[in-house]
Amino acid sequence: MGNRLDVFKAAINEITDYGHITALLGWDMQVNMPAGGAEDRSDQISSMERLMHMKITSPETVQLMGEMREYAKTIDPDSDDARLIKVSLREFDKLAKVPTRWVAEFSKETSQAHMVWEKAKRSSNFSIFQSSLERIVTLRREYASFFAPYEHVYDPLLDGFEPGLKTAEVQAIFNALRPQQVALIKAIGQKPQVDDGFLTRPYAEKAQWDFGVEVVSKFGYDWEHGRQDKAMHPFTTSFGLGDVRITTRFDPAHGASGLFSTMHEGGHALYEQGPDRRFRRTPLANGASMAIHESQSRMYENLVGRSLPFWKHFYSRFQQLFPSELGNVDLMTFYKGINKVEPSLIRVEADEATYNLHIMLRLELEIALMEGSLEVKDLPDAWNARMSDYLGVTPPDDAHGVLQDVHWSSGYIGYFPTYALGNLVSAQLWEVMQQQMPDLDAQIERGEFSNLLAWLRTNIHTHGAKYEPQELLQKVTGSKIDPQPYVRYLTGKYSAIYGL
């Protein structure tokens, strides 16, 4: 079997390369490509996706996968080879149900839709994007149909980002979490509000950029194997373990926006740079799931980046960069300001206490779109109604409402729940880390992040996608996804800030 195993691994390497080439085309599309290149780029990405799908579903690969399925039964199920076969077969079995025609059409449609979304957002006009989204929703419904029968039409979409998790499970987690977060928000609302007016002053973009680079460098981001660029909506992408790139954006009306964006994407990138080198050019070099991925980004952005120990170390440096904006703002005022709880319009700017409500809103809308109980043309009104109901605010225009996120233009229906799940996972991991490293806060206050990264490397990053997300979390924390550590974290943090 040795020779056939080598043939299998070579095929997996080639398929992985196709994926990285497609990702490179997508990165360039969002960072460098002129607007007029959208049609050609969509054809190029469609061709790459079609080639990859044809390779995966070819008679040779089908036979090879069948042989590997039998071989895996004869070896240690926890070995690298067995796990590589398991992960590869899982993706193969899914893709085998999807026609090559659909893959090419979907990739072309989403490539074109991204540029349409950018135009619509700049114009704050949903009607520009409506027909593109209608086609994407139709294609995603068709994708789900390839996996019927299912418990829920949303299940196949969610599974693409969170393997093995069902819609009903996510809804149960959110149903347990929502009343506790709402109660906390109401309690905070009864207390005097903190001041964050200093954040709305204009902060020089270059200084924001430099400070963000300084911070993620201290976190451990390897610039020899990565870079940062600007994008309309920040993202992280990987073309292999040796090339993991981040993007950021700057909001002139919010002075810390670029910094928290860079920290968020830096958390993703540290994960992507962390899998064991022996997984190179295989699907095991990916993250276990998007919830695990988001746990890393949200951890560095919030549990580290919005913590008091972090700013005890970095605040004097930040003041030096922005003396006119922050010279008269003391540390505690700044710390409370960046953690202000107030219902807001934009998800990526939302505070930790209200953020998950943004996600629950999107989940409800996506489920309604997939079930057919909500039509795309009615999405702006449905969005605004839920924003008013959930957060008590109503978007003044489409750019601040239904058009604010890039995900639907990429066809990423099923992705949003992983942000909230990532918040929960980040707190679960944080509790274990603090138990095993009681001086973690003191290390952060000294600007020392090497032990934090080493712990994540050992327990999370190095495994890549070798273990399924719930399996990995069980190994590390002794529990599957549990909302209570996050509730404890929020309650402790905001009790101190607001005097609850």
Q: What report would you give on this structure?
A:
63% of the residues lie in helices and 2% in strands. The chain is mostly helical and 500 residues long. It folds into two domains: 2-125; 167-498, Neurolysin, domain 3 (Orthogonal Bundle). It has a three-stranded mixed beta sheet. The N and C termini lie far apart (64 Å).
Secondary structure class reads mainly alpha
Query: Helix tally?
Result: 21
Number of strands: 3
Rg calc? 23 Å
Let me know the largest β-sheet.
3 strands, mixed
Strand content: under 5%
CATH topology of the largest domain: Neurolysin, domain 3
| Helical proportion, percent range | 55-70%
Strand order of the largest sheet: 1-3-2
CATH architectural group of the largest domain: Orthogonal Bundle
Shape: globular
Q: What is the string of helix and strand elements?
A: HHHHHHHHHEEEHHHHHHHHHHHH
| Average of pLDDT | 95
- Compute the number of structural domains: 2
